[in-house]
Amino acid sequence: MTAECCGYPISIFFIVVNEFCERFSYYGMRAVLVLYFRYFLLWDDDLATSIYHAFVALCYLTPILGAIIADSWLGKFKTIIYLSIVYAIGQVTMAISTIHDITDANRDGTPDNFTFHIALSMLGLILIALGTGGIKPCVAAFGGDQFQEHQSRQLNTFFSVFYLCINAGSLLSTLITPVLRAQECGIHTQQQCYPLAFGVPAVLMVISLVVFIAGSGMYVKTDPEGNIMWSVCKCIGFAIKNRFRHRSSSYPKREHWMDWANEKYDKLLIAQIKMVLKVLFLYIPLPMFWTLFDQKGSRWTLQATTMSGDFVSILISTVNPILILTLVPIMDRLIFPLIQKCGLNFSPLKRMTVGMLFAAMAFVSAALVQIEIDKTLPNFPSSSESQLKVVNTYSTTLNVTISPNEHLLIESFGVQLHTSKHTYSTISCMFVNDFSLIHGEQWCEFSRKFGFGASYTFLIPSTVFSDDCESITEVEDMKPNSVHMALQIPQYFLITTGEVMFSVTGLQFSYSQAPKNMKSVLQAGWLCTNAVGNIIVLIVAELGKLPKQWAEYLLFASLLVAVSIIFSIMAYFYTYIDPAEIEAQVRKEQGLEPEEMEKETLEMEEKDEDQKNEQGVKQTKI
Ligand SMILES: CC(C)C[C@H](NC(=O)CN)C(=O)O
After folding, report:
1. Which of 66, 213, 246, 312 has the highest CB neighbour number within 10 Å of its CB?
2. Candidates 59, 135, 503, 535: which one to mutate for ligand 1, based on the most atoms within 8 Å of Cβ?
């Protein structure tokens, strides 16, 4: 019997605090990673972005490794401890790699041996990816293991609170670590304080581990049942081979193709594999949701840069966790109970389908915003056109004729305007508020806010420095961005509503439909849908874009609607199961473990029928 508080096992307190600290550590480090690549290692934008995406993809591929270790070998508890140690070592390694003084022998403020810093940071990132991905499927499943059969309502609330902790950790760290980076620190020279920005996440990871260990005495720990993954693979392999051997129509058909493993494998294992395969089959369309969801960080960010408003980076990095923190309680406490009161069965798979439709609507909203933005954007010359600007300061009107075969290229960048050699200069700056022309002691100052996205030309007559700055003419070549960033809020709201319906439910569903010894494996399968979604984004980005961005948004929205229709058909044919009940049934048929079975039957009878309905459970025999 586990210690309880308000109907919840006390042990889950340690698990949710552990998750909060771990997510703080992960997202905090991620928030400054590209900046570290760009401004510390001095990589270019392309290399920095590629390595960043490769790292994120690795973090969502390693869960399968963690799940195999947990379900087949160490059990969830030990896997979480060992991989958290690897994770913490990775974070510390990463933080050390950012200390510029280590290799700054000439004390000029920049590291002298970049190879050392690159090698150390790559080692750190690999350890972090192994740790964070490895523990990810285990922590959620381990949290679920703390609940007993009669606590299914509390189990659902746990997954919501778990998701809240993920986003609370992510929100705080995304706000804090960039501020830490902006501090100055160093032994020989003062530089931007990357060691602090990476060091705090490392400390949080150590705290996360300590909190998890502190709960040791209270956890329900399930032992792994041997090398389950290897047995699963062998069993599937045998079923396929056996089916092929008996392909002639003279052999009687079997109810399920996995039944061809009956000759050699335990019925219980076959039943468990059937449960897992059914859920994995259902996962096939799911990456499409993540394909749209993860474009928040790419296409939508770029969209924001063509809009007006000064809070781009803060808005982009915090709007999703803030909305999650608001929407999860509203959905859990208000919307879902209300739907249930209306007598509608809003089962998990229906919620996930509706979540997908919300994400599709978010992209329609993004397309509408894009159409508004496009109206305000200047017409840039295409790859087969040139653009000429002729400034006429002559006293009379001139006619301009253009010979189509001649190309004119004026190119000069910099801040010095020479009177004879270069008379034209382009300067691109962020946050331009002041613009001064300095010539010895004399100067002209233009002090006002220059709009984002705008382009200005200043025409300086030869007389300017002798007396008046008034004679300088300012021409607005391109208007500043005028569509306000607040217009993006509906799309963020819609996609986050979709996330709450899709992702929180998917997390619960993956746990509830998995047999006891494969809970982590199904969690890993669920996380893999995210990895595949990210890979699709990379491929689509590589394959190029439609000529109009709004058309691309609408294409993605239509694709997701099509996928959600397919998913809803698959979901219609899916029968919710109670894995524990099926396992007990199989054992009964095999005449095994009567005492164990009696206990399970009793527990099942005790189950609250209402709670079952809430989950849309239809019992079935697999
Ligand atoms: C469910 C995601 C794959 C991962 C999740 N992210 C969020 O909750 C973002 N809102 C996480 O565990 O970090």
Report:
1. 66
2. 503
